[in-house]
Design goal:
heterodimer, A: 268 residues, alpha/beta, Rossmann fold, 9-stranded mixed β-sheet, B: 974 residues, alpha+beta, 7-stranded mixed β-sheet, 34 helices, 25% strand, EC 3.5.1.2 (chain A), nucleotide-binding (chain A)
């Protein structure tokens, strides 16, 4: 398998090289491409079989995490990206990439995408989920456990057996919803992909620091209805070799997430 | 002109933000809640006004989170109401304070907003931002002004208003080309000095006279551009004249007898560089020549390391000062063509619990300084994607008026990839941020003492950083390096373009046009453009044929570049403005004209406190008991957990952190040093360590002892995590008071002598260093503070060691002899006792550390921890808490029965000691490897949940792991 993966580098991205290493270790061929090269048409989304939006601080997150990158996605790449997603190719947003996918409305995505498409270019999707400031109002870096949600629409993740153990490093990773109905809908439709858990896989139940940021229902990551777009706050790309594991117990490699998503790309 | 004001508020703002608590600490108890709002101002000076729909789209796409926030758009700014008018009947006791950046201070959010708006088709927009605080409580106008000044607004970079603030847009002033001729002819010494003071040049009489006679000889008056250039180039900050000066040094005994009188031909040459030359390590690639020291890493790569200080800026504007401190040191790494891979920081603050009424005028409260500095470091390092992995935090009242902020950075560069020789005809190209009136006089300002008026006089020296622009520099310079597009590179630090171009063109001469410098806004005079220390700029020497390729790369990475001129080859510095020469100086005068100063230094040894420890301890007081002392040590702010600070730094980014700041099953035990594996080198097992040694408390007692102890501490910390003791390089950073006083300089001489002796003993070279002098506030110097940073090669990262106990039943060994060395110790401080000898150099430490390293390489050491402040008792406690395991330790082998009180063996701070945990099956092999070393078996790891200390099997005390955790972690303990 030699899947070409697009690692999108927007100005201020910084975990792109680690994401590339993870993709490589998982058997694919990553290409770090600057957003300006895509804008200039030197490279195209369609040249690749999978898209990774890596962590970092795109444009300094000066107007809120991922907001400016989300604008780029909506203004410059609306059609290309929508087409990429609709062909079923896997898209992984990590941390800042996740924030950008949420804030551009690609995650969890509208229930009926055709309605939105008819609104044309520059239309903004109605958003009822967000990633906001951590409840402790500060950036935090610490290792967390996260478990794949049973019955998630991102069914490629089902092959990840044990909780993934990897660091979070963010100030705006607090997943929130507009109201309870939205939460019920997310859970009912299988749009939750990951939750924060303890080392035994039990739900964090909002307990700090297991749930490091105050996310509602311990949600660490979500997916779209087709299950091919996945976003999460923690950094699985920072745990691809057991020597990176601070507990040195050989468990919870984040590499398994990359393997799962890359395997799911094989069908497209 | 129409201005839109958009107020964005969070739906669920509980009105906390810690502001009420902080207000209570200020003595304002009537503040109940404080809610925040973000304000954006949009101005359309030339373009047509946007439609309502466009403004709504701007809000939806960029300014308002629909799930958590809502916005109010006001199209006519209300006239600024005073506080009385804000007292509405429906909201009694609600007050508003609004805070905005001063004109000229970088407003990143506003710039991002302008570019984002353009993407949405809204052009020619000028943006500004402000923060709004809505305060509830019965607050008088005096209260409100105090809250604003002491809590919400920093006058150095911000302004505030009670009620709505008026926006100021940056683009409002006219170009100014004024150049002043400053005649020095005939001025007396006093008048010359007055001229230096008035213009904030920080030049002394001798230096002013040298300049006067130079211009008298060439028969004209200097321009302001020339004077400023000379002042910057000759500043302590840039040329380190104290470290180069000739010093007459007298060492006196406590009884006043002269022990020695020496002539020192430059501290740097005599002690620091001399040590490097003497140890002559072949793996040193560059020491003291480039912007950072460079050592060999593996066959393909070298490592660059640099530590800088940013003390005065951080005293005035803690966030911005620390922020740009990281920015500056990272540029030093880029300036040796390296890719930055990690950051370190060491911070010294005043006491956090100082009551506000005792705060001297003109300084910020130490808690506010700490909060800002920590946020500033995190903001910059995190946004650059660099792990901040090693450091220390020291608290002492000596840092009240003058905190210390040491910022370090490490980089990786392919061997032989750093070109250092500009060629005649090369273009002088500036990259990165635009130039503004920010950061004027930073170099000269950091070469003077702080006073209570410094805030208002030197506010322009302080800036806010823009890490994303710097990130672009990292990418662009790396790409340009790989394509070999430049012949030399340097950063714009202190002195700005003046310093960068002046240094780069020292041999060739340079000719530059200031009108080509990209500006943030018009209105800068030529000298301001030339001297501005605006952040995030680098200068490259580029053969003109390479310019198109460089431009392509710059466009790709969103970095602005501009060709300013060329290296002329005639040995002159020519600075032009619109073609007209505004400075014309021979490089030889600029760089060699500075008279070498002569100074006197005096060091008087301290009279020992003759009261013996025995007498002090004879008082039967509970707080003198061993266990109580241990608890006080563990909760001492300098020793206690720094988790609340360190967790706000990303220490995982780049995926190479092998030993991180916190270790053990709860990931909260203290690590001795960091071990890092650079991305791109995972083909082998080699990694590197970063560690520090610092002990100003000891320096108050004996500066020589402080220096040798700092070297040993940095060194043993590196060895503890697995560094090869024959591959450790050192950096020295001195922060000191005004060196023109003989006592300050004498202490500095002693510290340098300690640096030399220690480096030679450990066979370890200094590869880089920096001194920051004039750290005084209102005539009070800081405690002379030496930071030693060490970078070591860890040959096998899979053998890297951590400090927490691993397995019940394992044996615990103490390596190294313990002497009664309590002078300048933590015990002494807690007892208020100033007696005892200070720690000295251990005997043959290098052989000892080599033996430990061999045992580690053989896989025998399960954990390893160094002994520092608080000695054996604190070190054992830290190993227990990290591993959440107990230990049963009998200290009789440590010093026998030489002291009736066990305080000496428990708390002595003798250098050169490590605790080792070894499996019983490896015990014999370890004892064999350490057979010629002073090493004692002192106990074993247990699962009792207790640290049980005995002497001759008689209990001294037991302390539970929970007690240790709660003392060490304080409020953070779970």
């Amino acid at each position: 398998m030699n899947l070409p993966i697009l690692i999108l580098h927007a100005t201020g991205a910084n975990r792109d090289a680690e994401a590339a290493r993870a993709c490589e270790l998982a058997g694919a061929t990553p290409h770090i491409v600057h957003i300006n090269q895509l804008r200039a048409g030197i490279r195209r989304f369609s040249d690749f079989g999978m898209l990774v939006l890596p962590g970092g601080f795109s444009y300094g997150d000066a107007l809120g995490a991922g907001v400016r990158q989300a604008l780029d996605l909506n203004v410059f790449f609306q059609e290309e990206l929508t087409e990429f997603i609709e062909t079923g190719k896997p898209v992984l947003g990590i941390c800042n990439g996740f924030q950008s996918l949420v804030k551009s409305g690609h995650l969890p995505g509208a229930a009926d995408d055709t309605v939105r498409r008819s609104e044309g270019r520059h239309a903004l999707r109605r958003r009822d989920v967000t990633l906001t400031h951590n409840v402790r109002e500060r950036f935090e870096c610490r290792w967390v456990h996260l478990a794949v949600e049973q019955g998630t629409r991102a069914n490629c993740l089902a092959q990840i057996g044990e909780p993934v153990f990897c660091p979070v490093a963010h100030g705006e990773g607090n997943f929130q919803v507009a109201d309870n109905e939205v939460l019920e809908q997310l859970e009912g439709e299988g749009l939750v992909a990951f939750r924060y858990v303890d080392s035994n896989g039990e739900r964090a139940g909002g307990r700090y620091p297991l749930n490091p940021n105050g996310s509602v229902a311990d949600i660490a990551g979500i997916c779209n209805r087709a299950g091919n777009v996945v976003g999460l706050m923690p950094h699985p790309e920072d745990h691809v070799d057991p020597i990176q594991n601070p507990l040195a117990d050989g468990k919870g490699l984040g590499l398994s997430l990359f393997r799962a998503m890359i395997a799911s790309a094989a069908g497209h | 002109m129409k201005i839109f004001r958009i107020e964005v508020t969070k739906h669920s703002d509980a009105g906390d933000h810690g502001i009420a608590a902080a207000a209570h600490r200020l003595g304002i108890s009537s503040l109940r809640t404080c809610r925040k709002a973000q304000i954006y101002f949009l101005n359309f000076p030339t373009a047509e006004l946007p439609t309502t729909d466009q403004i709504k789209r701007l809000c939806d796409f960029l300014l308002v989170d629909p799930v958590t926030e809502s916005a109010q758009v006001i199209s006519q700014p209300r006239p600024c109401p005073n506080d009385d008018q804000l007292q509405h009947a429906d909201a009694p006791n609600e007050h508003v304070i609004e805070v905005a950046l001063r004109p000229g201070v970088t407003d990143v959010a506003a710039r991002v907003l302008e570019r984002g708006a353009a993407e949405l088709g809204i052009h020619d927009l000028e943006a500004a931002t402000a923060a709004q605080f809505r305060l509830k409580g019965d607050l008088s106008p005096t209260d409100l002004h105090r809250l604003a000044r002491d809590l919400l607004c920093n006058d150095t970079i911000e302004r505030y208003s009670l009620g709505s603030i008026e926006p100021i847009f940056d683009h409002s002033s006219e170009a100014r080309d004024h150049v002043e001729q400053v005649s020095l002819t005939g001025l007396s010494d006093e008048e010359l000095l007055a001229c230096s003071r008035e213009r904030l040049l920080s030049l002394d009489t001798e230096e002013m006279k040298e300049i006067q006679s130079f211009y008298d000889e060439i028969g004209r008056a200097p321009t302001d551009v020339e004077l400023e250039t000379l002042a910057q180039t000759w500043s302590e900050h840039c040329v380190h004249k104290t470290f180069k000066s000739n010093i007459a040094f007298t060492l006196r005994s406590a009884s006043g007898q002269a022990l020695s009188v020496d002539e020192i031909q430059g501290l740097l040459r005599t002690y620091i560089q001399a040590a490097t030359e003497k140890v002559n390590r072949p793996w040193v690639r560059s020491a003291f020549v480039d912007d950072a020291g460079i050592i060999e890493f593996d066959e393909q790569f070298d490592l660059a390391f640099k530590v800088e200080t940013h003390n005065h800026p951080s005293a005035l504007e803690p966030f911005g000062g620390a922020n740009t401190g990281i920015g500056g040191v990272v540029r030093d790494i880029i300036a040796v063509s390296a890719r930055p891979v990690a950051c370190t920081d060491v911070l010294c603050f005043g006491p956090q619990d100082l009551i506000p009424q005792e705060l001297p005028a003109g300084i910020l409260h130490p808690a506010r300084v700490k909060e800002g500095v920590v946020a500033g470091i995190g903001d910059y390092g995190n946004k650059l994607g660099l792990p901040t992995v090693n450091g220390a935090v020291i608290y002492d009242e000596g840092y009240l008026g003058n905190p210390l902020v040491f910022c370090g950075a490490v980089g990786l560069l392919p061997k032989g990839s750093h070109p250092t020789e500009p060629r005649q005809g090369d273009r002088i190209v500036v990259l990165g941020g635009r130039t503004g009136r920010d950061g004027i006089h930073g170099a000269t300002f950091s070469s003077a003492e702080l006073t209570q008026d410094t805030h208002s006089e030197s506010g322009s020296a302080v800036q806010i950083g823009d890490p994303i622009t710097e990130k672009g520099l990292i990418e662009l310079v790396e790409a340009a390096r790989d394509q070999r597009l430049y012949n030399a590179v340097t950063d714009c630090g202190a002195g700005g373009l003046s310093s960068a171009v002046g240094e780069m063109g020292e041999k060739l001469g340079a000719d530059v046009e200031l009108q080509d410098v990209p500006l943030k806004y018009p209105g800068l005079t030529p000298w301001e453009i030339w001297l501005s220390e605006a952040q995030e700029r680098m200068v490259l020497a580029v053969p003109s044929g390479n310019l198109p390729r460089l431009q392509e790369l710059a466009d790709l990475w969103d970095v602005e570049i501009r060709d300013l001129g060329h290296f002329s080859g005639d040995g002159w510095l020519r600075v032009r403005y619109g073609g007209r020469a505004v400075a014309e100086l021979p490089m030889s005068f600029l760089h060699d004209g500075l008279p070498i100063p002569s100074r006197t230094a005096l060091y008087e040894e301290q009279a020992p406190d003759l009261s013996s420890l025995q007498t002090v301890l004879a008082r039967p007081r509970p707080e003198l008991q061993e266990k109580e002392l241990l608890v006080r040590m563990l909760s001492h702010p300098t020793v206690a957990s720094k988790e609340r600070i360190v967790r706000t730094y990303d220490h995982e980014v780049r995926g190479g952190t092998i030993v991180r700041p916190f270790v053990g099953p709860h990931m909260d035990g203290p690590a001795d040093a960091a071990v890092l594996k650079p991305l791109g080198t995972w083909g082998h097992e080699r990694a590197f360590s970063l560690s520090t040694g610092i002990n100003p408390l000891l320096g108050k007692r004996d500066c020589y002892a402080m220096a040798v102890s700092a070297v040993d501490e940095a060194f043993r910390n590196a060895v503890s995590v697995g560094a090869d003791p024959d591959r450790i390089a050192l950096l020295d950073n001195f922060c000191w008071g005004n060196p023109t006083f003989p006592d300050r300089l004498g202490a500095l001489v002693r510290a340098c002598q300690g640096c030399y002796d220690a480096a030679v003993t450990y066979n370890a070279p200094y590869i880089s260093g920096k001194d920051s002098l004039f750290n005084e506030f209102e005539g009070q110097p800081i405690p002379g503070t030496l930071l030693i940073s060490a970078i070591g090669i860890v040959p096998d990262m899979r053998r890297a060691c951590t400090s927490h106990l691993k397995q019940p039943g394992n044996c615990i060994f103490l390596l190294g002899e313990t002497r009664e060395e309590l002078g300048g110790s933590l015990l002494g401080q807690l007892l208020g006792w100033n007696g005892g000898d200070p720690p000295s150099l251990p005997e043959e430490p290098l052989r000892r550390y080599r033996a430990v390293h061999a045992a580690m390489q053989a896989g025998m050491i399960q954990s390893c921890h160094d002994l520092s402040e608080g000695g054996l008792a604190v070190a054992l406690s830290e190993m227990c808490l990290g591993g959440r395991l107990g230990a049963s330790v009998d200290i009789s082998p440590v010093m026998g029965d030489a002291y009736s009180h066990p305080h000496v063996p428990l708390f002595s701070e003798t250098n050169g000691r490590l605790l080792l945990e070894v499996a019983p099956s490896d015990r014999a092999a370890l004892e064999e490897i350490l057979s010629d070393q002073p090493v004692s078996f002192i106990g074993e790891v247990t699962d009792s949940g207790q640290l049980a200390l005995t002497r001759n099997r008689q209990p001294i005390f037991n302390i539970s792991i929970e007690e240790i955790v709660s003392a060490w972690k304080g409020a953070d303990a779970e």
